[in-house]
Structure formats: C-alpha cells, structure tokens
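Progress against Task 2.4 (sequence-to-structure conversion) is shown through the following example record, which the project officer requested during the mid-term review.
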Amino acid sequence: MKEQIKIWLVGNTGLRNPNRIQEGFSVFANSAFVGHLHGRENELRFMNLLDEKGIIQNTEGKDSSGSHARKWRLMFARNGLIYPQLQKKDGRQEDLGALDDITPFGRSFLKADTYPAVQECYLRAMSVEQFPITDGTHYFSPLRWLLAIMLELEKRTGSSELSRIEFALWGHTTNPSYSLQEVVDNILDLRQRRATAPAKRPFDKEEIVKRGKNYDKKPDNFLDYSDMNMRYLRISGIFQRKGRGLVIVPAKHVLAEKLAKASASSAPIIEQYKLLCTGAPLPTDNAEVAKALLNDLIQQMKERHILYDISDLPLNTPAEINIARQRLENVLAQTDEIQYANNQCNQWREIRDYMTLLIRGGGKFVYDEDNAIEVPKDETPAYLEWTLWRAALAINHMVNKPYEVRGFKLDSDFLPVSAAGGGKGDLYCEFRDFTILTEVTMSTSSRQEAMEGEPVRRHISDAVLKYDKPVYGMFIAIHIDTNTAETFRHGIWYTKDDVRQRLDIVPLTLEQFQRYFVAMFKANEANPEKLRELIVKCESHRDILEAPAWKQYINTAVSEKVSEITGKITACSDSEELLCRQELL
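Structure tokens generated for the chain above:
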C-alpha cells in the first residue's frame, strides 16, 4: 500500500447537504440554463437564480466567480441528472447527449415525490462505477466498495459498523486497487489499538499524521471530507448513522450483499455515463432478488412482532414486489419513529443543546471523539422545526402519532431532510384536553410579520375549526419583531363565512422556550399542562398592554414560571451555556 493516498469525494464540500439537490435541480429544470450551464456568464446567472429562489445564500454577493453554480453542476452531472462533459479521449459528446441537457434519469428524479423514491434514485446513481482508479483504465463505485469493506467487517466481527476515524483513514482513502483483506486488517488493527489508548483525541491525531505522510493535501481533509462523504452515502438509504460513523441498514442487508463489489470495472467511461444517464439497474429490478429482499424484511418484522398486511397486493412482477416491500418499510419506519419518540424524554439535554446552536445561528457541539451534534448554518429552518418537534415528543402525552405531528420529512437517522412545505402549520400537538399548534421561523427582520402574520393566524384558525377542543398557538423565533407581537396580540381572524375568531397565539423567543423547557425537566414536571399554564399566563395581559410592553411581560412571565417550577431562576446566558451543558450532561 505504497500508493499515494487520494480521497474520493461522492459529494462536494460546497454542497454538503444532498437533500437540497432536488429542489435546486427543479429550479434548473424550469430555467433557461438547461443545456447552457457552462461559461462564466451562465454560471453567475444561474448562481443568482439559486440565490433568488432561496436555494443558496450568496450573502452580499460574496461569490462573484460563479463557483456555487459549478458545484451544483458537478453534482447534477455526477448523479446523472444532466449529461456530463466527455473528454475527447473518451468518446464523442453527441454519442452521450447534449452537454448540460437533462437526462432521462434526471426526468425520473424530478418525478420522485417521496423520500424513499429520492433515495432509490441516489442509490442507482451511486452504484455506477464512474470514479477512476490511478491505472487510468478502471472505474469503481465508492458505495459498492464501502459495502464490500463493511460486509467483510461484519463477517469477522458480527457488525458492519464503521467508525468515523476508521472511515476517515481506511474508507474514503482506499479503492478496489487495494486488497480488501488488508484494508479490513488495518481497520481492525486501528480499532484494537484505539480501544486501549488512554486518550482518543491525541490517538486519532497521531494516526492521521501517520496516514497523512502518503497524502499531499491538508490532513484536516481526512475528517472534514469524511463527514460530507458519509452524509452523501447515507442518502442512498442503504447506510445509516451509528455514532459519528456508519452501519448498513438492517432492512437493506440483502440488497447490500448484492451491490457489494471489491473489484473495479474496465468498461469505458462513456458506457458508465450512458448507464448513469438512463438510470442504472438495481438488483431489486430482478424478481428473484426483490422477493428475497421482501422475505428478509418480513422475517425481521416477525422477529420484532410488528404487525403488517400485504395480502391485498399482487406479487407477480419486480415492480409489484417492490411496492409491497416499500409498504413494509414504511410500517417499519413508523414503528421505529414511535420508539424514537418514546425515548425523547431521555434526550432533553441534547434537545436543549440543539436550541443553543440554533440561537447562535448554527454550529457544532462535540461531546467526545465519537459523539457530536451539528446544526449546519444553511439548514437552520429545518433544524428549528425538527428541534421543536423533538421537544414536543419529550414533553409527551400526545394522542396523535409522532409522524402526524410534523410536516417535514426525516431521513433514516431521524434527522430533518428539509423544512415543511407551505399550506399547513408546522407542528400539530394534540393532547387529551387541548391542542397546541407550534409555528416557527428563523426570520428576525421587520419582514417577519409580513411573512408569518397571515399564515400563522390562518393555520390556527383552521385548527380551531378542526379540533373539538381548545387550540393554543405558540409562535417561536430567535427574535420576535414587535409588529409580529402586535398582530398576535390582537389575534383576530375571519373565517370564509365571516365568523370572527379571537385566536390564542403567544410569541416566544427560542431562548425563552428553552428556559422553560429545561426548567420542566430539571424539576421533573415536563407535561403538556405545564406548557398550557405558560401560554395562558403569557396571554393574560395582552388586552391591557401595547406590543412592546406585552413582549416584556412575556419575558417576565417565563422567568416567573421557571422560578415557580424550580424554586430558582435556572436560565443561563449564552456565555454560560457551555458550562451549564457540561454540568447537565
């Protein structure tokens, strides 16, 4: 293994969230840039279009070179959504397809309207062997190679788990030109030595330095690129998070075995691109394999005593078998989500930490070398909804299911895919005697009222008409604009029949909600009735105070309720948050 190390990249550090590719590609597909995404002028104009549509945030024109557009174009091409540029030595562009034009697979990707369908598209794309090996004639698929490594690990240890440092040093730094057995030998040697190391962080640094002697770029890339690569690999649906590393999804084990490949392909790259752009086949396109995968899933569900019914579905073709499997996978996902929800009361400290990161505008908390949480700065809206959803689950006692509470999608690790779409409220928490509809926003400017005032009142009005019990609204933002508070202070809405409604909506900052949330758990009094008490107290003075004074009263009311629950003010300032977090952890 004297070959100079080269880290493969299935994603791009400038586009770290693959879940955003579909919305960006949808913008592209409806633009004048189809077939015209090369050239600095086109790149700049497409970048501005992405910025205009809210897909990226090119703050104050920071990127004036169009590099954002090039990164998006690279991801479109790598996943077979547009025809990539073919080098002359590899064939004629016209034999593949018009440069930057949308491919047949790209059209299929645009039609993928469920998260499992999107995952399957990525799985097809990542299964194509389009990454070159240094011999100049062979190509490999990082996904297939990694599956081969993890299955060999499972064969030797009983688990396919691959830790972050193992992936960093022996996952994305290797390819089928390496001996699979030797790669796994090195992973197990690293694992054994690390297990006995007195301090993990210095050990990891030393190992990176040693491995970095054969790498000619920044040693930081080992870990930085790991996080990005693993995130892209997980969107295939065949991997899920395990600590800060990866493990093969149990329900996809049979598929993983069929996809794993420790050798490279000698097929010309133009043939690989043709496969990529038309939609690469998967083992599940074969009826026998599809049935084997279905039977394996049925056995797993029986072992877990999960009820299911597919008796109404035909099982004659691969497509029909896969539809039945997807139904079972959905039942399994909902069952896992209920278990996840039931555990959130034990995760309140982590939920609090996510709130702190959101208040700061994003960032990361590293608890130790194997455990960390992160809120990517460009994904704060999705993480705000998700964090408040988790907070509601932690408070518990809801009569609706956790997947009925939220409007946003989750990945297999229960992380947010994107923020919920418009047209309905963010979080519907139905309790026995009342319902709380929570609306959230990262908006802090004077535009907050214009963006949120009407839809929030409309959503809560709809909920009042829907539920035969009291409905309370919580509006949570990092900062509450006074005009927003004024709109909710009145809370007036007229239905389609001109029926006047007085809505109960309390605007809270995330910091205020966090203080009360933490207090409830520290005092072992986390329950929905306590949350209703806070809402009722906060709105009690809205008719006698102007908006600025009402905002101040709400802050005082939160402090008083915190003090009432705990016997002391438990709030900690942002500068003290880390100390509080360490104390509570």
